[in-house]
């Protein structure tokens, strides 16, 4: 089980320290900093050997440090998010999946409470963070991690709540007893809205790897159904899709009755209050019909430089425009300058990261295919090739998998809620090799 | 109002004055602010213990938020001030009977943390009451408190019958209470010398029923506990697996992977192949879905997948593509994926695999590129029909002249030559063009082996060897051994070409080096050549045992042991937990009438009800544990070093225990 948690800033200093089972000395953080520095300084190409040590400049970055590091006495399970490292040293056998899930959950909850997770926001709301950590775990066992249940015990630090706490304190009222021991731990009792409404956002991200010649190496969509529920009482909902058979694999919020899904492909659930992720799913896409964009990069190296051409061909998206297209084209590390023109959008070359960023705000079908072409020069006679173009875009009101909601029915409550569904397709890890 | 101001270093006198201030504070607002300051100081590591007596006065304020901070303080300092802690007891006793269940739970929870003898004594009665409290929130908190007490004083927990009380909680109407009781029992059983958790069929079914209703973390505890259920009859395992299968759809990846563990375990007790196949089919999609998570989760998943597919090859058989690497995956994810791609490769998909590997071999990440090149070579050894395409790919890579790529390629080409003698020697010329740039011992010895092995086809073999010999005395032993053997081979195959080199090398090896292996080998060659040249030829040029990638597989028993530890550090490092965790209770596949062939029954323990028993079962384990130690996995110091050694034990130069094999 989890002993302790340290939150460390980018300089290796402790911001939060929490122990649930006996105290682990703060020195463990130094050990961690040393171990990860040691790792980052390994010369490239030596990861699979253990006999080489060196003092050269760091080659690996913090992102490359393995999530489990070994030290003399402890195993250092660590998660790096936005400059903060969340470190759990463990001494005994432990389920690392549980530790990582729990750390992610803490990060999510803190983000939910504070708006963002950073050294500044944690310091600003230190007592809240501390209370959360205390409430989320007892003696190394995760306790209450549902945001809805937590909010009943610990008020988010907003101005209104500050006032509320003061008033409550004045009246000598202790917070309500948490309802998380009921059979639906995710929903609090006595929720009331004058206007009952529930919204669903279906967001699909396309992960694809495409070769330079347009061959699709792999391609799938990861979808999530996020809901915002503002319904009174204990509504029991039943959501059906027009075409649920499209889904290859799915996972659900604990509120979903899995048996019902297995037998009738119906999402039957009592929703938590507020925002929550109802389900996520995976759909294998047939590459040629599903790709909303086809991107053809061409890079021709010449001596000390080269030429490049990239064209973007929009494909069928049910007539919906493709928006916010951003192509990040990494150039070789030896690049000294880039000169290019594009017929649509605008481009920028960042000499520090050696990346060309080409942005197209909106693309309709039947327009002229956007093209970016140019030359680059390099300090190397033979600049290295084989870099990967990263593509970003989004398409509103479109779901690439074809998933559509059929109906939403409500039981147990008398009112008629307002219902809304929005779809959106985005690029996930959409990579084009050159 | 932000909390940052509480971080100002507060002087204890000032804080004390504020705490004891006589000013009217009917809403305890001032006290709350001071407490916040104290807690903030405490977490900064400033010593706040002098305030103990003053804090005790605050204990009677019945505002939950203040109470929580006071308790936090007590947990922190009670151990260093046991006398002071005593004074808190009356307050605890009062709180533990508070009408508000939240306060009762909080009090019992805090008392469990304060492991001071006197407090522990006073904890027993309240704990007993809380375990039977009318409110489930208190009961579930009390269950965890038993573990705390157990860590402090296990004898006490047993003599006061707390274990029995936990067992009774398994029949609690509330699923969360059941889950916590199970978690407590599991942990106690793992730490205990004389308590062994065993679930019988009816308790296992009861737990499986509670699964649907308890929290996600509760589900991981319950699933974990099901590992202590031993199916007795045909159909038991199938039924339980069927009941827990919906957990594979859970959003929490810890629940999913623990469920995979239980299902893999239960499959050992299933007879019908078609049942096993159908459960295997259920495992694939959720394992793929784990890969859509953050990189840390992916890493743990990948390391475990590697184990699962070795035991049940039908899992993920058709999902190879999902393991293709993204260029921005962290290096540890890429390397772990590459292992799996190699395992899933077969003659049907080898073209796809090969074109991916070629792509990876041109990336910028050196470690990744090396492993990709190496995988191409291993692919050739694994799949004969693809060998030619692999060789072509390797030659293309050698033409890039990227130094580390060339060296890596030469190492694997040696293995290909060994696997398929007399088929691909035409490429030797190309290899020889790259001799000058070799600077890694492994690549050098590989190349030297090739030169020696084909001394009769490489016209200038003597010149090439002579070049290498130039630095003989400075080389690492591995290269020296290769040079010695290669020179002797040259001499036997082409005595004229080798006659000048051999005496020189034998002299160096026997007289000028300190390494006993090298010296011994030198002497053996010397005597062989001088006494019986015919048998020297028969021995040195004998056929070598053929190689395969089979030796990459983990030992079957070791694999079975690791599979009992899916989703643990052991499964991430592929290392038996008994080798790196103190006082670890080893796990085995227990014999039962339903156990299928595969793992041998290790010992017989027939009891099937869950019970706290004092029999010496653990001592029975100990000698088995010693046997198991011999199956330790690869060196854990480097997580990447695991199971990707070159093809052992038949690599030239590597000793495999038989004297003659030294003379390759």
From TrEMBL, chain A:
Protein name as annotated: Clathrin adaptor, mu subunit
Gene Ontology, cellular component aspect: clathrin adaptor complex; endomembrane system
Subcellular location(s) per record: Endomembrane system
Positions of transmembrane segments: none
Species name: Hesseltinella vesiculosa
Keyword field contains Transport: yes
Family: Belongs to the adaptor complexes medium subunit family.
The keyword Transport appears for this protein: yes
Superkingdom of the source species: Eukaryota
GO biological process terms, semicolon-separated: intracellular protein transport; vesicle-mediated transport
Keywords annotated in UniProt: Membrane, Protein transport, Transport
Taxonomic lineage: Eukaryota, Fungi, Fungi incertae sedis, Mucoromycota, Mucoromycotina
Annotated ranges, domain MHD: 195-433
InterPro entries: Adaptor_comp_med_subunit, AP2_Mu_C_sf, AP_mu_sigma_su, Clathrin_mu, Clathrin_mu_CS, Longin-like_dom_sf, MHD
SUPFAM superfamilies (UniProt xref): Second domain of Mu2 adaptin subunit (ap50) of ap2 adaptor (SSF49447), SNARE-like (SSF64356)
Automatic annotation (TrEMBL), chain B:
Annotated SUPFAM superfamilies: ARM repeat
One of the record's GO cellular component terms: cell cortex of cell tip
Molecular function terms from GO: clathrin binding
Subcellular compartments: Endomembrane system
Tree of life domain: Eukaryota
Keyword Transport: yes
Swiss-Prot/TrEMBL keywords: Membrane, Protein transport, Transport
GO BP annotations, alphabetical order: intracellular protein transport; vesicle-mediated transport
Keyword flag Protein transport: yes
Clathrin/coatomer adaptor adaptin-like N-terminal domain segment(s): 10-532
Pfam families (alphabetical): Adaptin_N (PF01602)
Family: Belongs to the adaptor complexes large subunit family.
Function: Adaptins are components of the adaptor complexes which link clathrin to receptors in coated vesicles. Clathrin-associated protein complexes are believed to interact with the cytoplasmic tails of membrane proteins, leading to their selection and concentration.
Name assigned to this protein: AP complex subunit beta
Organism: Hesseltinella vesiculosa
């Amino acid at each position: 089980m989890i002993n302790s948690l340290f939150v460390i800033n980018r300089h290796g200093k402790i911001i939060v320290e929490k122990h649930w089972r006996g105290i682990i000395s703060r020195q463990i953080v130094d050990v961690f900093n040393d171990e990860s520095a040691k790792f980052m300084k390994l010369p490239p190409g030596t990861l699979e050997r253990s006999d080489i040590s060196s003092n050269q400049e760091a080659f690996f970055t913090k992102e490359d440090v393995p999530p489990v590091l070994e030290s003399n006495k402890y195993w250092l399970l660590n998660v790096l998010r936005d400059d903060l490292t969340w470190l759990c040293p463990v001494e005994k056998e432990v389920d690392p999946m549980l530790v990582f899930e729990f750390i992610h959950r803490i990060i999510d909850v803190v983000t939910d409470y504070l708006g963002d997770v950073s050294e500044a926001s944690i310091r600003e709301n230190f007592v809240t963070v501390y209370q959360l950590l205390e409430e989320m775990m007892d003696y190394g066992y995760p306790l209450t991690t549902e945001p809805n249940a937590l909010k009943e015990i610990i008020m988010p630090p907003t101005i209104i709540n500050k006032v509320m706490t003061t008033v409550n304190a004045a009246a000598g009222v202790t917070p309500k007893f948490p309802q998380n021991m009921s059979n639906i731990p995710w929903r609090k009792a006595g929720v009331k809205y004058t206007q009952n409404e529930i919204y669903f956002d279906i967001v699909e991200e396309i992960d694809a790897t495409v070769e330079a010649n347009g061959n699709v190496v792999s391609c799938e969509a990861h979808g999530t159904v996020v809901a915002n529920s503002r319904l009174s009482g204990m509504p029991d909902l039943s959501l059906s899709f027009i075409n649920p058979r499209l889904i290859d694999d799915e996972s659900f919020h604990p509120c979903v009755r899995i048996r019902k899904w297995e037998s009738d492909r119906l999402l039957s659930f009592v929703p938590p209050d507020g925002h929550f992720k109802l389900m996520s799913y995976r759909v294998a896409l047939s590459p040629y019909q599903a790709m909303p964009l086809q991107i053809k990069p061409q890079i021709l190296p010449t001596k000390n430089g080269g030429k490049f051409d990239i064209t973007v061909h929009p494909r069928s998206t049910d007539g919906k425009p493709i928006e916010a297209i951003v192509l990040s084209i990494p150039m070789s590390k030896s690049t000294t300058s880039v000169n290019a023109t594009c017929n649509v959008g605008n481009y920028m070359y960042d000499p520090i990261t050696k990346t060309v960023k080409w942005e197209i705000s909106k693309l309709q079908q039947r327009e002229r295919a956007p093209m970016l072409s140019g030359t680059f020069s390099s300090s190397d006679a033979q600049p290295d090739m084989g870099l990967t173009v990263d593509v970003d875009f989004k398409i509103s009101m479109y779901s690439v998998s074809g998933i559509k909601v059929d109906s939403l029915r409500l039981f147990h409550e008398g009112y008629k809620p307002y219902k809304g569904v929005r779809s959106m397709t985005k690029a996930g890890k959409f990579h084009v090799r050159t | 109002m932000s909390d940052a101001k509480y971080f100002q270093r507060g002087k204890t006198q000032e804080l004390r004055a504020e705490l004891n201030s006589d000013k009217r504070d009917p809403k305890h607002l001032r006290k709350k602010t001071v407490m916040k300051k104290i807690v903030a100081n405490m977490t900064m590591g400033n010593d706040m213990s002098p305030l103990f007596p003053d804090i005790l006065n605050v204990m009677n304020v019945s505002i939950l938020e203040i109470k929580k901070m006071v308790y936090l303080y007590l947990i922190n300092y009670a151990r260093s001030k046991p006398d002071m802690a005593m004074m808190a007891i009356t307050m605890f006793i009062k709180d533990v009977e508070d009408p508000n269940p939240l306060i009762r739970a909080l009090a019992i929870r805090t008392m469990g943390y304060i492991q001071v003898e006197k407090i522990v004594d006073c904890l027993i009665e309240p704990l007993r009451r809380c375990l039977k409290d009318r409110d489930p929130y208190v009961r579930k908190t009390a269950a965890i408190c038993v573990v705390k007490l157990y860590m402090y004083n296990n004898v006490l927990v047993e003599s006061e019958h707390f274990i029995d009380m936990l067992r009774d909680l398994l029949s609690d109407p509330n699923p969360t209470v059941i889950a916590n009781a199970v978690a407590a029992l599991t942990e106690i059983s793992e730490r205990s010398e004389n308590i062994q958790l065993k679930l019988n069929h009816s308790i296992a079914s009861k737990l499986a029923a509670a699964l649907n209703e308890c929290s996600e973390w509760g589900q991981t505890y319950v699933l974990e506990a099901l590992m202590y259920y031993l199916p007795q009859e045909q159909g038991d395992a199938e039924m339980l697996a069927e009941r827990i299968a919906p957990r594979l759809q859970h959003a929490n990846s810890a629940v999913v992977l623990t469920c995979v563990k239980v299902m893999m375990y239960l499959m050992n007790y299933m007879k019908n192949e078609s049942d096993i196949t159908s459960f295997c089919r259920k495992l694939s999609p959720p394992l793929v879905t784990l890969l859509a998570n953050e990189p840390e989760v992916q890493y743990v998943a990948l390391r475990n997948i590697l184990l699962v597919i070795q035991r049940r090859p039908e899992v993920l058989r058709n999902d190879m593509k999902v393991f293709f690497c993204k260029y921005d995956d962290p290096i540890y994810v890429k390397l772990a994926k590459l292992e799996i791609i190699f395992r899933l490769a077969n003659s049907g998909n080898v073209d796809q695999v090969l074109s991916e590997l070629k792509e990876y071999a041109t990336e910028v990440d050196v470690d990744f590129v090396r492993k990709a090149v190496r995988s191409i070579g291993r692919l050739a050894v694994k799949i004969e029909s693809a060998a030619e395409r692999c060789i072509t790919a390797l030659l293309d890579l050698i033409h890039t002249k990227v130094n580390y790529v060339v060296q890596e390629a030469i190492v694997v080409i040696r293995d290909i030559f060994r696997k398929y003698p007399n088929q691909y020697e035409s490429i030797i010329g190309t290899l020889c063009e790259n001799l000058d740039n070799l600077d890694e011992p492994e690549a050098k010895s590989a190349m030297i082996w090739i030169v020696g092995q084909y001394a009769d086809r490489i016209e200038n073999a003597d010149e090439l060897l002579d070049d290498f010999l130039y630095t003989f005395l400075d080389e690492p032993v591995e290269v020296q051994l290769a040079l010695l053997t290669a020179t002797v081979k040259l001499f036997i195959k082409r005595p004229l070409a080798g006659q000048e080199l051999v005496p020189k090398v034998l002299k160096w090896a026997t007289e000028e080096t300190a390494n006993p292996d090298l010296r011994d080998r030198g002497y053996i060659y010397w005597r062989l050549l001088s006494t019986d040249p015919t048998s020297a030829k028969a021995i040195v040029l004998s056929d070598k045992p053929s190689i395969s990638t089979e030796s990459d597989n983990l030992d079957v028993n070791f694999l079975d042991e690791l599979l009992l530890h899916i989703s643990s550090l052991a499964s991430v490092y592929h290392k038996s937990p008994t080798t790196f965790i103190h006082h670890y209770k080893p796990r085995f596949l227990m014999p039962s009438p339903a156990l299928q062939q595969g793992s041998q029954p290790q010992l017989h323990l027939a009891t099937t009800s869950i019970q706290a028993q004092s029999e010496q079962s653990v001592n029975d384990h100990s000698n088995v544990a010693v046997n198991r130690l011999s199956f330790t996995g690869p060196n854990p110091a480097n997580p990447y070093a695991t199971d990707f050694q070159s093809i052992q034990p038949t690599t030239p130069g590597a000793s495999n225990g038989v004297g003659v094999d030294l003379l390759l």
